[in-house]
C-alpha cells in the first residue's frame, strides 16, 4: 500500500502537507479569485458589437398591456436589472397578457 511522501516533504518549499484525513489550511485570499476566474470563464460569452441593440419585452404592470417591445443597448442595458423584463424578446413578440 502506498504511504505517500514523508510528512513535511512536498517538493516545494513552504508547501503545507498533511496526512490523509487531516485538515489543510487554505489561504482565504487565494480561493476567491480562483472561483471568480472559473465562474467568469464558464459564463463568458462573446461581447456584442458596440452600438448594437437588443429587443426587450419591458414589463409595464398593466393588465391590458403587460409588456411593450423596446430596443435597449446590447445585453439589455438598464432592463437587465428589471426582474420581469424578457431579454431578448421572443421571436414571436411579447406576451399579450400577464
Indicate the topology.
Blueprint: H1 28-42, E1 53-59, E2 67-73
Antiparallel strand pairs: 1-2
What profile does the largest beta sheet have? Answer: 2 strands, antiparallel
Broad structural category: alpha+beta
The number of E-state strands comes to: 2
Radius of gyration: 26 Å
Order of helices and strands: HEE
Q: Report strand order across the widest sheet.
A: 1-2
N- to C-terminal distance: 66 Å
Unreliable segments of 5+ consecutive residues? none
- How much of the sequence is in beta strands? 5-15%
Walkthrough of the structure:
The protein is built from 1 helix and 2 strands. The protein has one helix at residues 28-42; strands at residues 53-59, 67-73. A two-stranded antiparallel sheet has the order 1-2. A hairpin with a 7-residue loop joins β1 (53-59) and β2 (67-73). The longest helix has 15 residues, at 28-42.
How would you summarize what this structure contains?
The chain is α+β, with helices and mostly antiparallel strands and 98 residues long. Helices cover 15% and strands 14% of the residues.
Amino acid at each position: 500500500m502506498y504511504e505517500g511522501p514523508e510528512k513535511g516533504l512536498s517538493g516545494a518549499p513552504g508547501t503545507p502537507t498533511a496526512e490523509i484525513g487531516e485538515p489543510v489550511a487554505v489561504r482565504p485570499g487565494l480561493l476567491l479569485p480562483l472561483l471568480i476566474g472559473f465562474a467568469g470563464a464558464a459564463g463568458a460569452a462573446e461581447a456584442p458589437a458596440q452600438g448594437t441593440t437588443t429587443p426587450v419585452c419591458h414589463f409595464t404592470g398593466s393588465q391590458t398591456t403587460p409588456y411593450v417591445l423596446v430596443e435597449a443597448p446590447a445585453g439589455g442595458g438598464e432592463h437587465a436589472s428589471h426582474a420581469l423584463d424578457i431579454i431578448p424578446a421572443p421571436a414571436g413578440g411579447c406576451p399579450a397578457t400577464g
